[in-house]
Amino acid sequence: xxxxxxxxxxxxxxxxxxxxxxxxxxxxxxxxxxxxxxxxxxxxxxxxxxxxxxxxxxxxxxxxxxxxxxxxxxxxxxxxxxxxxxxxxxxxxxxxxxxxxxxxxxxxxxxxxxxxxxxxxxxxxxxxxxxxxxxxxxxxxxxxxxxxxxxxxxxxxxxxxxxxxxxxxxxxxxxxxxxxxxxxxxxxxxxxxxxxxxxxxxxxxxxxxxxxxxxxxxxxxxxxxxxxxxxxxxxxxxxxxxxxxxxxxxxxxxxxxxxxxxxxxxxxxxxxxxxxxxxxxxxxxxxxxxxxxxxxxxxxxxxxxxxxxxxxxxxxxxxxxxxxxxxxxxxxxxxxxxx
Length: 339
Fold this sequence. Notes:
single chain, 339 residues, alpha/beta, Rossmann fold, eight-stranded mixed sheet, two-stranded antiparallel sheet, 11 helices
């Protein structure tokens, strides 16, 4: 329900994208994916910028279009921002990238699927050919948490595709974000004789889960993303010894190569070509991601890469209101208003 029922409402279109990129995923996940596309009021999409929403872990893009209590879903937010003149009209896509392991980091993995290729090679042409939006210089990607990670890593690796990006509370500094959680993972697996398969089977066949279960599943999903092993169950292997929790350096190195802070040096030239880059994080973030964000901000400053960096007095959750600032910024960047 709109806060103001008189706000002109955009249209939501649902398309299906049959993906070649996802056909080899080890999870058995479906390869045809739903994408909900928002087109602003009194527009067809033609010649408008295109934004792509990458959601956080445990969600799929369509979740951002669902009814929301005590607030707005993202299409309602877009309606308000556009109708008030705060944001120029834009098409916004909400792809369903949910996986059997509960989420996505939006990069290619033999276990999780080639999600990088799905977004770029399968989804973008399907949307742009139908709605005549986006195109070179007119695409941006945004998201929070895992979606923030995906947005930043795509900007770093594919600045020829994405011209702007917004990373809200994105995963970075893996040694701080993931590594301290490994003892907890091993404790959870110990109740299932150390078996990842048994643990996942418990979750998939059970009737309820607690926050700890979902957190463990997330870390298993990270393993299948950053260091997939074709010989392991669902491609999952951990970067630590299962008995002593000692780090296995060669496996951990496979994780680190996907850390945005590690990739930064080789991605500086790409980042300099962006029209806009937004990074923010709550200074009370429960996962300490604000310290990682500060490191990225420092790196960007030292490399003279233009960007917006903000901290705000909140934690990791329920921070969709930050889109009120980042989305108009992205559209202005795509429309060359910062030149």
